[in-house]
Design brief:
Structural class: alpha+beta
Shape: globular
Number of domains: 2
Order of helices and strands: EHEEHEEHH
CATH class of the largest domain: Alpha Beta
Largest sheet: 3 strands, antiparallel
Distance between the termini: 39 Å
Number of helices: 4
Length: about 160
């Protein structure tokens, strides 16, 4: 197995077409576990076996903790995707962001609009040694191309069906 390489900047090339061009699909199955509640005691497993994680309700929500939760998984996915977008943009601009980091906070809370639930996302970008004006431009462009940022800005297609 060779060294791990960053994806090519050719991923930034524009696609033209009338339909979504699928590049990769992640599939994860979740079971409810002991409490028969995916969030409280579920197990999430990817079809390729790379992900196998027990879910536990955090102590802040009345659970025992001791496992990951959907907010942590979402924060990890968002941070990885945003950093990937930032890395591609920086590479294309021939800017080294070797010491960069992304910290994403996902807050699960009550929605005052309907009294139910919502997620709030905060993203902190650290780009040591990069001029602030350049850093802001890199972040702005990353927000434009990161699919997670795009999803938060404009929503995404979601289909739910019964099998």
């Amino acid at each position: 197995m060779g060294a791990i390489q960053a994806p090519p900047i050719s991923l930034l090339d524009k696609f033209t077409g009338e339909n979504v061009l699928p590049l990769y699909t992640a599939r994860v199955a979740l079971t409810g576990g002991e409490a028969r509640h995916g969030r409280a005691s579920g197990a999430a497993k990817s079809d390729d076996g790379a992900l196998c994680v027990d879910l536990r309700l955090p102590k802040e929500l009345g659970g025992p903790g001791g496992g990951t939760n959907p907010e942590q998984l979402f924060a990890a996915g968002f941070a990885a995707c945003f950093h990937g977008a930032l890395s591609l943009i920086a590479s294309k601009s021939k800017i080294s962001i070797r010491e960069s980091s992304i910290q994403v906070s996902v807050t699960f809370g009550r929605d005052p609009a309907d009294g139910l639930f919502l997620l709030k996302v905060d993203t902190e970008v650290t780009l040591p040694g990069i001029d602030r004006t350049i850093a802001h431009e890199l972040i702005k462009e990353s927000e434009r191309i990161c699919p997670y940022s795009k999803m938060l800005r404009q929503g995404c297609e979601n289909t739910v069906w019964l099998t």
